[in-house]
Amino acid sequence: MxxxxxxxxxxxxxxxxxxxxxxNLEYRGYDSSGIAFNSNEGLTIVxxxxxxxxxxxxxxxxxxxxxxxxxxxxxxxHGEPNETNxxxxxxxxxxxxxxxxxxxxxxxKKELQEKNYEFKTETDTEVATAYIDYCYxxxxxxxxxxxxxxxxxxxxxxxxxxxxxxxxxIYATRKDSPLVVGYSDVGNFAASDISAILNYTxxxxxxxxxxxxxxxxxxxxxxxxxxxxxxxEVKTATWDATQxxxxxxxxxxxxxxxxxxxxxxxxxxxxxxxxxxxxxDFSAFDKIHIVACGSAMHAALxxxxxxxxxxxxxxxxxxxxxxxxxxxxxTPKTLLIVVSQSGETADTIAALRLAKExxxxxxxxxxxxxxxxxxxxxxxxxxxxxPEIAVATTKGYxxxxxxxxxxxxxxxxxxxxxxxxxxNNIKNELLNIKDKIDYTLAQANTYLDIANDIYSHNDxxxxxxxxxxAVCMEGSLKxxxxxxxxxxxxxxxxxxxxxxxxxxxxxxxIAIATDNSLFEKxxxxxxxxxxxxxxxxxxxxxxxxxxNFDEFADKTIxxxxxxxxxxxxxxxxxxxxxxxETAKLRNCDIDKPRNLAKSVTVE
Length: 603
Ligand code: F6R
Hints:
The chain is of the alpha/beta class. Helix content is 35%, strand content 24%. The chain folds into three domains: 3-239, Aminohydrolase, N-terminal nucleophile (Ntn) domain (Glutamine Phosphoribosylpyrophosphate, subunit 1, domain 1, 4-Layer Sandwich); 246-431, 3-Layer(aba) Sandwich (Rossmann fold), CATH 3.40.50; 442-591, Glucose-6-phosphate isomerase like protein, domain 1 (Rossmann fold). Helix 4 (124-139) packs across helix 5. It binds fructose -6-phosphate (F6R). Residues 293-296, 340-342, 345, 348, 392-393, 477, 481, 600 line the site of fructose -6-phosphate.
């Protein structure tokens, strides 16, 4: 995690530009931040615990005219998030910022201590800084010192490095953590993500692993590990900076919830006008593994349901960090689908690399264009949901579900499992889904009303069966991560095997029953909780609007009925909205919940 940016310029505004860029990277971590900048007095380092606004406060009291700066926003891994442990770190002639983890830092630290290096912080990054300084003392060659040190580092890193005796040049390299170079007429950048530099330029290059970059205010030079100059493709970003702004919404999360009608409609339109899956031969595989983390894993559970139930293909979902423990199940006949909004999640990357080693074919469902996962998979299916800034995913999740729907439909078509009439019905429904999503969003008062009922409770349960059970898991995660309210998700039939003992007078239970064939059974399960005092919120579709809910439901959410390829999206949007309103009533920091980061680039 962590975000880094470096900027070297012909002007004297590197601090302002670096801080503005850093704010766009705050989603990557926000427990402390810091900056090093060059000025007439030499290299100044300013750090602060907490959000970037605290750092700005400190900087406002200093003279910050500078032509080169490197800055960092942190999600702590080693050492608490205080000022001492914040980046940049400086040892000897080296000052640097780092995103990633140096896993073997303890042994390197010992080696350096024997060479009389002393350490002030608990971080792995200070050790990396010292190691580069040590290598520089041996070679007196700046790039060579970085190459030599990187050979020793195990783990992940993206570095922006400044040498004391060349303070307007930034050296950069990466392994398993993202980093891009940006070019403008007045200066050049190296940043974790294009969003940090889009206000200044849309010209950028991706940095491949094993490349070492020297960046001055006029020239950027790429080298391979043998320090031969190499070329790099300059790309033009098509996103515009307004996509990174709230555009009138109170929070990014609310903005992103409201972007879903278009994002989802676009995916279904794209699929029906130009199906790009013709190169996937589902009959070539004996099984599908779907691997992801967090919400992406919840989208995978919906995908598994669709692939198994409709396309009749056995599918298994595994949490990415657990995938290596079942490696004997991965063969050349395995289709692995990895799912990731950021395309940078370390556990998911490790899983895809393992599967490729084992000869599996790997498809990625990815949002971030050009990300590591998108580049390493055999086939990338982009969700094209646009930048997602709120740490809690919304459109990222629903767009992944929509792509799974299109994959399942494609597999059904390949296997001739659909009649023409069925195809037409599904197509008509999905090509007009925007109206039903709009209708779902328009029930904002219902979501606020329910939030008012639940926000003062400590515990809440989600229950559902079949595909609803998968959506319950996402609803529960959304609520707990942004409102800090404890919640659990259970298959409706499972509650009575233990957990029902937690239900007491007033405990909120959100029960979801959108699948007609499972409706009665879920109703029975809600009644079981009601009999024990639960406050029941029942989520179903307008096909049941005349049902007598009074005997078991205190509140209802009635969603438009659609098919299983889109219903989970409508349900998830309703649950996202309840979570959002609840977090707001609890005065939580909705876009940046405590302890989290958007891009989880450590295992
Ligand atoms: C929750 C959330 C996380 C991510 C997970 C995977 O709202 O956003 O659970 O879904 O960290 O991230 P990606 O999809 O970037 O691999």
